[in-house]
């Protein structure tokens, strides 16, 4: 089934819709003619993709902290959603060191509040709860993590995401029996997402773009750390495909899925910066990895996505160079004409859909 057919006129609730991935998902679902209900805090950056692209237009835009259980439950029960995408989170590793309590409260308690709210629904609903690739106990082996590998993490952010996965698993087993539950739930794990619209601090792409736009030098803390970089639209297409499959196939209830690029697409931070430099002027950077101590950051992390290919017929479709080019083009458009950025966002969603269609993916046909 195509995404257009699956989501047209369906009520889709997104938590964290004002954030990086949430804003892109909101724009995509609006293109698919869904009835979007968004639950989030105000955008956490100024400027923000959500505001610049006028994404509040045509949706139900609610300001609720997911740590507030009663307000969250009331909004979800009132919305009576057909689909739920839970993206609201404290998503920054370095911030988790500064504020571990906020990180755990948002990522674990907030997820539990969502699960409790889903218990109040008495209608069919497919809920995709997004955690992170960092939910795995990362021992930095060279092969990709599978969905059955151990959960955990050395930093507060990673540990909170592993704990959220345990909470999801427990609640499904305890309160959403596979044979009878009208609400079906799956967990989605992805990470190292880049793309236009990310304006957060302590992320490599926005840090570079902001510095270069001001003719400043970028300091690279971990230039040789490798990541499976993927464009934001890649995992979002996976989340959408998973939600549709979950609504149709009860055997997927309770299953976790990885979403990431092809295994060969692991590149270092330095390689990412070098590739971005091909699309930007006044580029300068400096390796400061040996100059200052900082909190632990993993050096190698990759996912095995065979399960998504087998059960969902999903796979990533963009290469590294194309991913970086599309990302740079979004930022260039934004700096040239910020008030027209909604056109660029929608055009990139359409372009990505065309690429997926050319690759034979069912959802794009």
Task: Explain briefly what this protein structure is.
Helix content is 42%, strand content 13%. It has 365 residues and is an alpha/beta fold.
Please give the structural blueprint.
Blueprint: H1 3-7, E1 11-15, H2 20-31, E2 35-40, H3 49-52, E3 60-63, H4 69-79, E4 83-86, H5 93-98, H6 100-119, E5 125-130, H7 156-175, E6 183-189, E7 193-194, H8 204-213, E8 218-220, E9 226-227, E10 230-231, H9 233-248, E11 256-258, E12 267-268, H10 269-277, E13 285-287, H11 306-312, H12 320-336, H13 341-358
Parallel strand pairs: 1-2, 1-4, 2-3, 4-5, 5-6, 6-11, 7-10, 8-13
Antiparallel strand pairs: 9-12
Helix pairs in contact: 4-6, 6-7, 12-13
Q: Could you list the spans in which at least 5 consecutive residues all have pLDDT below 50?
A: none
Under CATH at level 1, the class stands as Alpha Beta
Q: What fraction strand? A: 5-15%
In the CATH hierarchy, the architecture is 3-Layer(aba) Sandwich
What would you say this structure looks like, in words?
42% of the residues lie in helices and 13% in strands. It is α/β, with parallel strands linked by helices and 365 residues long. The chain has a single domain, classed as Rossmann fold (3-Layer(aba) Sandwich), CATH 3.40.50. Strand 5, helix 7 and strand 6 form a beta-alpha-beta unit. The longest helix is centred in the first third of the chain and has 20 residues. The chain is globular, with a radius of gyration of 19 Å. The N and C termini lie close together (9 Å).
What key attributes describe this structure?
365 residues; alpha/beta; Rossmann fold; 7-stranded parallel beta sheet; two-stranded parallel ribbon; 13 helices; 42% helix
């Amino acid at each position: 089934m195509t995404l257009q057919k699956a989501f047209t006129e369906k009520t889709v609730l997104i938590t964290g819709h004002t954030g990086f991935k949430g804003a892109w998902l909101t724009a995509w679902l609006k293109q698919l003619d869904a009835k979007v209900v968004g639950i989030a805090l105000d955008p956490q950056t100024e400027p923000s993709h959500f505001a610049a692209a006028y994404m509040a237009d045509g949706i139900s835009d609610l300001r609720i902290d997911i740590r507030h259980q009663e307000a969250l439950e009331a909004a979800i029960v009132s919305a009576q959603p057909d689909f739920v995408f839970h993206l609201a989170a404290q998503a920054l590793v370095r911030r988790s060191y500064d504020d571990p309590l906020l990180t755990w409260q948002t990522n674990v308690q907030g997820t539990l509040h969502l699960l409790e709210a889903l218990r109040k629904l008495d209608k069919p609903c497919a809920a995709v709860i997004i955690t992170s690739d960092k939910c795995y106990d990362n021992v930095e082996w060279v092969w990709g993590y599978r969905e059955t590998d151990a959960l955990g993490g050395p930093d507060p952010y990673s540990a909170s995401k592993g704990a959220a996965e345990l909470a999801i698993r427990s609640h499904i087993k305890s309160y959403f029996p596979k044979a009878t539950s009208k609400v079906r739930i799956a967990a989605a794990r992805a990470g190292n997402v880049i793309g236009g619209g990310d304006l957060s601090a302590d992320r490599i792409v926005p840090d570079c773009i902001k510095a270069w736009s001001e003719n400043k030098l970028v300091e690279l803390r971990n230039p040789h750390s490798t990541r499976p970089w993927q464009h934001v639209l890649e995992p979002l297409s996976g989340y959408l495909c998973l939600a549709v499959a979950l609504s149709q196939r009860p055997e997927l209830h309770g299953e976790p899925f990885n979403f990431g690029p092809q295994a060969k697409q692991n590149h270092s931070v330095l390689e990412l910066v070098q590739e971005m430099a091909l699309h930007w002027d006044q580029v300068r950077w400096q390796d400061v990895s040996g100059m200052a101590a900082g909190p632990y950051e993993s050096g190698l992390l990759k996912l095995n996505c065979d399960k998504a290919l087998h059960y969902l017929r999903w796979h990533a479709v963009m290469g590294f160079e194309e991913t970086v080019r599309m990302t740079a083009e979004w930022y260039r458009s934004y700096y040239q004409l910020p008030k027209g950025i909604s056109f660029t966002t929608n055009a990139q969603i359409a372009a990505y859909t065309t690429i997926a269609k050319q690759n034979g993916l069912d959802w794009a046909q």
